[in-house]
Write a structure and sequence with these properties.
Strand content of chain B: 15-25%
CATH class of chain A: Alpha Beta
Oligomer: heterotetramer
Shape of chain B: globular
Number of helices of chain A: 6
Order of helices and strands of chain A: HHEEEHHHH
Bound molecules: pyridoxal-5'-phosphate
Number of strands of chain B: 17
Number of helices of chain B: 14
Structural class of chain A: alpha+beta
Distance between the termini of chain B: 41 Å
Strand content of chain A: 15-25%
CATH superfamily of the largest domain in chain B: Type I PLP-dependent aspartate aminotransferase-like (Major domain)
Largest interface: B-C, 99 and 99 residues
Largest sheet of chain A: 3 strands, antiparallel
Radius of gyration of chain B: 22 Å
Strand order of the largest sheet of chain B: 4-10-9-8-7-5-6
Number of domains of chain A: 1
CATH architecture of the largest domain in chain B: 3-Layer(aba) Sandwich
Distance between the termini of chain A: 57 Å
Strand order of the largest sheet of chain A: 1-2-3
């Protein structure tokens, strides 16, 4: 049965025990995304911080979220926070890109496990176009919130 | 009811797609007819025959093909009109039920600037439009937008915990300020069949019009516009064994004549000058452009097909299926039916939630077993909010479904519970 | 032009209807493709295959059929978009070109009440909308009605005695008050191909939008939206070997995003509450309800079919036919061509009058001989008035027509002259 | 060839030499009808008169018209005036009914020559739905004008 290919143990684990869930302070920016076909929602906050050395590179200091949705969307949010927290924004954006490409690969992607780590488990989901949106929901919300946060940081910098 | 029992096997043989397999060679169990129905060979043949023998632009030519095409198109109109007990010239073809409803809503806002002749249909500030909390977005958003364009006020009936329309405030909601009441005949989520006549009587008593969304009733039960006692009826071809790309608006002749046009262009005009135009009589007034004649012919073939089986028989068959489904799905532990659990005044849509499993995940397990259902809010988001559900899983039946299909559904739900570890046993 | 010559016999074999006979077993000579084209087997097969293998409601389900249907629909969008050089997400499906044009006109009037976000598209008193005297009613009446709804003013380009657009007052007509210029790419009566780029440049210089009616150009010549330099392009599937019931609106992405919806309902929403809704991004924002997916698939097959032959080759073939027709029809005594007699910048519609014989009677004689033409004002009544003709007879060509078809037309006209006793000899 | 069946000599004669054509005074009512698919037009006037004996029966005293259109529409107007002028309104309405029925018979009508006289020649036209409107144009205009005239007579009578 194909179900196991989609619902890998890793996904079910994150679904049952999501990491970093719950909205936290402090944060720079928040975004709220909805999947209009099923009504699933996520509210997501990001906190960016300048690296210790005071140079330009910003780091993803925290991602917190509240969400309602299916196993795929919940697990994907959880895996994402594990992956992105602690990375620089540039590194995180690169991961987002890699994950997006995997999800749009219609089951034909060859995920880079070095970059995606646990997120490679979602490879099977990419065969189900209707579920790709679920897997991407939190990622899109993160991108959105990060872009907002960067915009604020810039303003602040001026 | 003396309805014949349906010979489901024979019927299924008419639908080529039902013979296919999905996901690792599993036979298809199609329980998503509420979204769109499958099409029998007879309908596809009729449409193809039109293209291969009679295709031409209808109402626009004097050559033989144009005559044949026009004839086929108008014959189709007569057949489809008769299917709901209406005269042919009261039936307007649209692209789907959604357009049919928008047509009425736009005619009402256009009436404000369309001249004296059409002033009767105009609405404005102080006027009220009434819908219900169980409407499909297709019969809700167009009215929100009508109110936005005109300054009228939108009001709505609530629903009871049992999934029925709450009519306790009927006389308050439908009053002298009400211009139109738009409601569904049968809910696409709850399955509920609404007491349209009763509401129409109140509406007419206060001078309001009544539009019924028949997208989920006309395909599934005998519907007669005179018996319904309403002013407009909208439905879609694709949900009743007909082609995509065609919908129907039936309207009382007198009202259609009082309505200014919606979409304008060729074939709906009286005369055209650079600075002004006049309109043809209905139904042409509402059919601008080259119409979907092949689809009309296909939909007429669908009506013939359904008539040959008998709409009474179709309704009785679905009633039996839904009764069986309510019993067997409803009795599963952890499963909650959203909608009446009593099969009376209830059609063949069974929506439910499964404790601890998101509908997407339920749907995925079913799909993996070849059982096609719909998951989500089914274009009835406010209704889902009302019942505290983000989404539901919906099985919907049609004449080609069997009791075995329901068994497959029940088995699939159990499997989902096992897979996600929420089953007791 | 290095276009291959068309192998008309091979092409004709793809169109089942062309093998039929009419009126006492006469072979059909179909010269009415300007009204609607015939469909090749490949298109009918593609549509049927969708129904028999993949049919489901697109964008609404998570089961395998729904996935396949959605995939087929979006693939079709990409193919059709590429056919006119557009990105897929800038292509909106409508029921025909008429609806596509109405969509833009209604979005502009809806903008008045649709909130800040869409205010940019609004028009009102003092604003001007510009059309031409050669428009099909589909690209005239919707703009009359937009002006009526909003208080804007309609203005128009005239035409010259030769059947060309009169651009002498371009700078006056298209000015700072102009919000949109809507014009046809190729006249369905005159055959004239308009200098769209030149007009678009002026329009854009004064901040006006440009909508091109491509109903008669996209089927007959290579069209690339970037080269055209316009903002919107509307066309119909049924005139380009595709199914009925589907039309296309291409619009620049930025503009589509700035437009409020036209028809509202399911699948075009962001969120829905009882008292307000928000919208999906384009193209979904403009595709309410279950769409005509099988027709989209059929239209994509039509694009593939035309691409395989080559639109350059199609255009060259029609150019040769029209040149031949202008020469042989035009030189008949008592026959007046309405439209340019010079085949340059001119497509394959040849309209004419015959002294002493009403077009209906000309058409009847032709029909009696199996030659199908259109008679009347061809939904361009003001244009006919301009040329002092109540009606004309129109022959229009497509890739499946041959020189022999033109000969049959010429012979038919002669016969009409003999029959009605207006021939000299 | 079928052409002769449609274009009977009688029709072509009336087309070439239409009877009663041209707008005349006096008249009670006028109507203007257009065929929106081809633009053909007719302007038609009727004059009704009380019968000599002063009883109720009104007579069609005159029909005059101006028109633009094809052979069928022109001939039909001409034949109609021949037929209806001099009849009582009731008789004329009966002829109209018979003619309408013939035109809608799709070539299967068996026209009553006693009632329709020359108008039986239009039987062939009924096989061509697109031309039926042409044949009926003047008749519909006559009906319209007559109804208007009757309405005025009634008012006058009160
Ligand atoms: C130039 C032109 N524009 C618009 C249309 C309208 O197309 P449709 O009737 O398919 O909407 C037509 C054809 O009828 C046409 O020839
Ligand atoms: C109750 C109801 N109304 C309206 C519609 C809209 O029908 P369509 O999408 O064919 O316009 C549907 C189906 O989607 C429906 O179920």
């Amino acid at each position: 049965m194909k179900l196991d290919a989609m619902y890998q143990e890793i996904i079910l684990d994150h679904y049952r025990n999501p990491h970093h869930k719950g909205l936290r302070e402090p944060f720079d920016a928040e975004s709220h995304h909805i999947n209009p076909t099923c009504g699933d929602e996520v509210t997501l906050r990001v906190l960016l911080e300048s690296a210790e050395d005071g140079k330009d590179a910003l780091t993803v200091a925290d991602i917190s979220y509240d969400s309602m949705g299916c196993s795929i969307s919940q697990a994907s949010a959880s895996v994402m926070t594990d992956l992105l927290i602690g990375k620089t924004v540039d590194e995180a954006m690169a991961v987002l890109e890699e994950f997006t490409a995997l999800m749009q690969s219609k089951g034909k992607g060859e995920p880079d496990e070095g970059v995606l780590e646990d997120a490679v488990a979602f490879a099977g989901v990419s065969k189900y176009p209707a579920r790709v949106k679920c897997a991407l929901l939190a990622w899109m919300a993160w991108k959105d919130a990060t872009v907002k946060s960067l915009a604020t940081q810039k303003e602040g910098a001026v | 009811m003396t309805a014949r029992e349906l010979d489901v096997e024979t019927i299924r043989a008419d639908f080529p797609i039902l013979a296919r397999t999905v996901r690792d060679e599993r036979p298809l169990v199609y329980l998503d007819s509420g979204a769109t129905s499958q099409k029998p060979r007879q309908v596809l043949d009729a449409e193809r025959e039109f293209y291969e023998r009679h295709n031409a632009a209808v109402h626009r030519g004097a050559h033989q093909l144009a005559e044949e095409a026009t004839d086929a198109y108008e014959q189709a109109r007569a057949t489809i009109a008769a299917f709901v007990g209406a005269p042919a010239d009261e039936v307007v073809f649209t692209k789907n039920a959604t357009e049919a409803i928008n047509l009425v809503a736009y005619a009402m806002s256009n009436a404000a600037t369309a001249g004296e002749e059409f002033a009767r249909m105009a609405v404005g500030p102080g006027d009220e439009v009434v819908v219900t909390e169980m409407e499909h977005h297709a019969n809700l958003v167009p009215w929100q937008e009508l109110c936005r364009r005109t300054g009228a006020t939108l009001r709505w009936f609530g629903v009871t915990d049992e999934g029925r329309l709450d009519l306790s405030n009927l006389d308050d909601l439908v009053n002298e300020r009400t211009r139109i009441v738009a409601l569904t005949h049968q809910s696409n989520v709850l399955g509920t069949v609404n007491p349209v006549r009763q509401i129409a009587e109140r509406a007419h008593a206060v001078g309001a019009l009544v539009l019924v969304d028949g997208a989920q009733s006309v395909p599934h039960m005998p519907v007669d516009v005179t018996e319904l006692g309403v002013d407009f009826l909208a439905f879609s071809g694709h949900k009743m064994c007909g082609p995509n790309g065609i919908g129907v608006l039936w309207g009382r002749g007198e009202l259609l004549r009082a309505m200014p046009p919606f979409i304008t262009g060729g074939s709906m005009i009286g005369t055209v000058h650079m600075d002004h135009s006049t309109w043809a009589d209905p139904p042409q007034r509402f059919e601008a452009g080259v119409p979907m004649a092949p689809q009309a012919v296909g939909l007429a073939a669908a009506c013939d097909y359904l008539n040959a089986i008998g709409m009474d028989a179709v309704a009785a068959h679905e009633h039996a299926l839904v009764e069986y489904a309510l019993k067997h799905v409803g009795s599963l532990e952890g499963v909650r039916i959203v909608g009446p659990t009593d099969p009376e005044a209830r059609g063949g849509a069974v929506s439910f939630t499964v404790d601890g499993i998101h509908p997407h995940d339920v749907g995925q397990v079913l799909d993996d077993r070849g059982v096609a259902v719909r998951v989500g809010h089914h274009c009835a988001w406010p209704l889902h909010r009302r019942y505290g559900a983000v989404a539901t899983t919906r099985a919907s039946f049609y004449l080609y479904n069997s009791f075995a299909d329901v068994d497959a559904l029940v088995e699939g739900i159990r499997e989902a519970q096992r897979f996600f570890g929420v089953a007791r046993s």
